[in-house]
Amino acid sequence: MSGPQVVPKPLLAVLKGERQSVPPMWLMRQAGRYLPEYRALRARKGGFLELVYDSAAAAEVTIQPLRRFGFDGAILFSDILIVPYAMGQDLWFEAGEGPRLAPILAETDLGALKPDFGRFEAVYETVRQVKAALDPAVTFLGFAGSPWTVATYMVAGQGSKDQGAARRLAYGDPARFGAIIDAIAEATVVYLDGQIRAGVEAVQLFDSWAGSLAPLQFERWVIEPNARIVEKVKALHPDVPVIGFPKGAGAKLADYARGTGVDAVGVDETVDPHWADRALPEGLPVQGNLDPLALIAGGEAVEQAVDTIRAAFANRPHIMNLGHGILPDTPIDHVAALISYVRERETA
Ligand code: 1CP
């Protein structure tokens, strides 16, 4: 007689601190515009939010890259801006441009927003549907934006080059800005708890604009609120790993890793992986950090970068990934070639 079969999950094993001779792999933004099957479904649904709020379609989009490439991880198809939407801020997508939120200007009271966490329910339903369909060897990742990055969109109403509006508010009225950060952090814990209860096995906190902050501001608006989220998620789900991705943190990466208590740290492509290996705590799992543009170039550019990254992280648990999201003009063949190149070689 045999008990229930336990299928190994290499990505989850790395997140729990186990080194693998072939690094498990997924790509940030792997569900999305570089895939023709994504573009076709997106066109049929008419809009991005329509896609997110159709759980069956969102589950399909989550699984599309797995079917094509056999990644070790699946990332939930949603967006970081679902949190401000559930906090009561209007959200829409301008065709060909990107997300828009009714901006929280200095004169608008945060208290005027009417939170509706029911807006998370369709995402939890997506999680349940993906979970039911997923190969058990694949690790299912949930995610949210980190408070600083989400705040940059809430304050400006859209993406911006230098996150100037949020940075000005953070200096000019730190109490008010802090209240926005706190409200995002609270909603984020609710959202991640819901995703985990619906079936994700690890979560990533995307702090895409962490790089625009001066050191003291980084401590206050990146490290401190992420630490609070990690602590609260851990209190609810001690065994669920949290990946922190402070894009652009550069030399502040080690302080981030130690200060937030994340289980793994995502490294962007501007960081020398040998430096990161020396700077980060021993044994801490890392994820990254192939340049998305190298993947567009393909061939030797990718192979060289992969070799360098693997050599640098040979002595710690490592997840192969990009340093930031895959770009829409990435040739699909290059993704397949990357996977073969990584999987055909074992780290010494
Ligand atoms: O037109 C379309 O089809 C929409 C494009 C798109 C997609 C595919 C958007 C709009 N969001 C997403 C999905 C998404 N976004 C995922 C899930 C799928 C996956 O990873 O495979 C994730 C994790 C995100 C995260 C996200 N959204 C971030 C953090 C990561 C990063 O790339 O820095 C950010 C900053 C956003 C905001 C956002 N949503 C969409 C766009 C075009 C943007 C960027 C806007 C801007 O800064 O101007």
UniProtKB/TrEMBL annotation:
EC primary class: lyase
Protein name per the record: Uroporphyrinogen decarboxylase
One GO BP: protoporphyrinogen IX biosynthetic process from glutamate
EC number: 4.1.1.37
UniProt binding sites for substrate: 29-33, 79, 153, 208, 324
Any GO MF annotation of the entry: uroporphyrinogen decarboxylase activity
One of the record's GO cellular component terms: cytosol
Provenance organism: Sphingobium baderi LL03
Stored InterPro entries: UROD/MetE-like_sf, Uroporphyrinogen_deCO2ase_HemE, Uroporphyrinogen_deCOase
UniProt site (Transition state stabilizer): 79
Domain of life according to the entry: Bacteria
Spans through the membrane: none
Gene for this chain: hemE
